[in-house]
Write a structure and sequence with these properties.
Length: about 220
């Protein structure tokens, strides 16, 4: 349970000031709404519908201090936005927000990879293009030979719990072949932290990125 906190007034007045200086605890619900606990009562806020169960909003239809406080805490990253939940990045351990139905180990924005990203292999120094996220742990996912990704010799220094990505080596692409041939290359599986992002969206063609993801 979160404790009630206050925020600096920032020179504001009226409801905007009360949203900051009055002690409140904001707690997200699984349905995308938020419970706001105050010294005067507990209310349910729906930021998308712009409603609150307090009299100020329900009767006077004002943008009450509870709605304002929830909006502030979403903006500052204290609570997740509607439709997302808090999770822990499997690489760095920092908090991140992910879709409510996200499965498997999760990653923060800094360590996430997407189909079409250009990445650097920390072990051999080569460049690769990410083709697919598998949403499974390295100690649960086999390679083509049947060995678990986590047990593969060059992956022993990376986390067993990290999510696995498939990627293709750029240096295996013939010199006279275009990027459209990437989908024909053999994809390899890696724990997330072995791949260091060089350029997000290196493959900018949506159709090509989709073909890579389903290669």
């Amino acid at each position: 349970m979160r404790r009630k906190t206050t925020l600096p007034s920032d020179g504001m007045t009226g409801r905007a000031r009360r949203a900051r200086v009055e002690p409140m605890a904001v707690r997200p619900l699984r349905d995308g709404r938020y419970v706001v606990e105050t010294d005067g009562g507990t209310y349910v806020v729906d930021v998308e519908a712009r409603t609150c169960t307090c009299p100020d909003n329900a009767i006077r239809h004002a943008r009450c201090k509870h709605l304002r406080r929830v909006a502030i805490e979403i903006t500052t990253g204290e609570v997740p936005p509607p439709g997302r939940r808090r999770a822990t990045c499997a690489v760095c351990g920092d908090d991140t927000f992910v879709p409510m139905d996200a499965r498997g180990p999760q990653l923060c924005h800094e360590h996430e990879h997407h189909p079409g990203d250009l990445v650097h292999d920390r072990e051999v120094g080569s460049l690769l293009v990410v083709t697919r996220a598998l949403h499974s742990r390295a100690d649960e996912t086999p390679t083509e030979t049947g060995t678990l990704v986590s047990d593969y010799e060059s992956n022993l220094e990376y986390g067993d719990h990290e999510p696995v990505f498939e990627a293709v080596y750029l240096d295996s692409l013939p010199a006279n072949a275009g990027l459209t041939k990437l989908g024909e290359l053999r994809a390899y599986r890696f724990p997330a932290s072995r791949l260091q992002r060089v350029e997000r969206g290196f493959i900018r063609s949506r159709s090509l990125a989709e073909r890579l993801a389903h290669a």
